[in-house]
Predict the 3D structure of the following.
Amino acid sequence: MRVLRLALRRLAASLPTLVLILVGLFLLLQLAPGDTVDALMAQMGGGDQALAEELRRFYGLDVGIAAQLGRYLMRLVTLDLGFSSIYGKPVATVILERLPATLLLMVSALSFAFFFGLVLGVVAARRVNKWPDTLISTLGLVFYATPSFWFGLMAIVLFSVYLQWLPAGGFGDITQNLTGIAAVLDIARYLVLPTLTLGLIFLAIYLRIMRASMLEVLSLDFVRTARAKGLSETRVVARHVLRNAMLPMVTLIGLQAGTMLGGSVVVESVFALPGLGRLAYESVVQRDLNTLLGIAFISAVLVICINFLVDILYARLDPRISAES
Amino acid sequence: MRALKAYCRSPAALIGTAILMAVVVMGVGATFFYPNDPLGLAGRPLQWPGANPRFPLGTDPSGRDIAAQLFHGARVSLLIGFVATSIAVMIGIAIGALSGFYGGVTDTALMRVTEAFQTLPNFLLLLVLVAVFGSTIETVTIAIGLVSWPPVARLTRAEFLTLRTRDFVQACRVQGLSDLHLIVREVLPNALPPVIVYASVVMAVAILLESALAFLQLSDPNVPSWGNLIGLGRNVLRTEWYVSAIPGVAILLTILGVSLVGQGLNDALNPRLAASR
C-alpha cells in the first residue's frame, strides 16, 4: 500500500512535466511552415482564399496562438486530440488503431533483451576474464554498435530472402482468415525479426550493466556470509545475488522507455508494421502536425506509465524503499 | 601522464583508436582519394563489388561509386557526430552546472525542463524538429544536439552537487571570488573527466541518430551519408543487398571505435574502476 502511494506521488509529480512537453511542442509546431489547411488545400489541388478562411474557422485556426493552445489543452482533458485531416478521423482513433502493434513490439523486445541480458550478464560475471566473459563482452560491444535498421535489413536478407523462414514485413497474414491460436502464432511469426532488431541494442546495454552489478554485489560481505554458511555457488547467485544485482537493470528500463519508443519508429518502418512509430514517420512526411502532436503526447504518457510500473517493481525488489518513506 | 600510460596499456582502447583514426583518415582524405563528386554518375548502376576493378565496392542503383560515397560519408558522419556532441555537451554542462551549483528554485526549474526532454522519446522530438525546421545538414546537426543533452546535464549536476560543498570551493568562496569564477575555474575542471567520457556515448548516439534519420530519407539528401546509402539500397535489397550492407559495416565500425575509445578513457580516468575489472 505504501509502495503504491509512493509511486502515485511520483506519478502526480510528472504531470507538470507532461504539460511542459505539450506547451513546448505546441509552440514549436507553430513555427512549422504551413498549417493543416495548407496541407489539406494542397491535397485537394488548390482552392481560393475564401475556402481557406472557412476551413481555418472550421479547424479553429482563425484565433490567436494563445487561444488555440488554451483550447487544445482544454480538449485534452476530455482525451480529444483533435482531428487528422489526412486520415479523415479523430487523431485519438488513428492512434488507438496503431497502439497495439507498438505495445506488442515493445513488450516482446523488452522481454527478449531483459531475459537474455540477464542470463548473459550472469554467465559473464561468473566466468569473469575467462573466455566466455570475453566472448560475451565482445558480442555486447558489437551489438551496441550495430545500427538497428541495418541489422533489420540484413536479417530480412538472410531469414526472409535466402532461408525463407520468416516473413519480411507486415503484421499477420491477411490472405487467410485465421482465428484463435493460429492467429496468435501467425502474428508471433511476423514479430520475431522486429523483436530481435529492436531488442538487440538493449540486450547489449543490459548484459553490460548486469555483468558490472553482479561483480559489484558478488564482492559484498553478505555474499561471503552466504558462502560461509555452506550454500552452493548456484544457490548463492540465485537466492542472494540476483535480486540485488537486478536493481540497476530495472532502473534502466524506466530510463530507456523513451529510447525504445524512438527506436520503434525505425524498426516499424523497416518491417512495415502498422504501429505508432510508423504513424509518426508518415505524419512527418505528410505534414499531419495534429497527429504528430498527438503521438508525442501519447508517447510521453506511455513513458510516464512505464516509469510508474518500474517504481512499483523496484520497490518490490528492494524492500528498503518502502521502509524509508 | 599516468592516465595516458593506462590508456595505452589497454588493448581495447588501442583498437578503438586505430579504427577511429582510419575513419578520420577516410574522411579527411576523401577529396584526395575521390576528387569527383561522390553523388555524380560514375558508371553502370548496380555492379557487384569486385566485378569492375574501377569500383572495388561496386555501384549503387543510380550508378554512383559506393567507395567514394563511403569516404565522403565518413566526413559527414564524423562532422555531424562531433558538432552535435559539442552542442549537446555545452548545453548539458551549462544547465547541469547552474542547476547543481545554485540548487533550490533554479535546480527545480531546470530539472523539470530536463525531465520533459527525457520523457519525450528523443527520436520523436528529432522528427518534430526536422518536420518544423526542414532537413538541411545544419538543422539536422543542431536538432541532434538539442535532443542529446539531458544525460550530460544530469551527470554534470551530480558532479557539481558533490563538489560544491568541498573545502577548496568553500575556501575560494571566503576569498570573495565571483560565482562565475567558482563555476568555471574551480568546480568545472574537477567535474569534467566523467563528462568527457560520457561525450563518447553522446557521439555514438549522435552518429546513429543521423544515420537512422538519413535511412528514413529525412536527412539532407544532398550530402553523401552512410544512412542515405542504406536507405537507397533498401529498394534493391532482395537481389543487390551489398548496397545496404557495406555502409552499415562502416557505421558499425565507427560506433565500435568511438565506444572503445570511450571505454579506454573511462578506465584510464577512473583507475579504481579499472582495477576491479
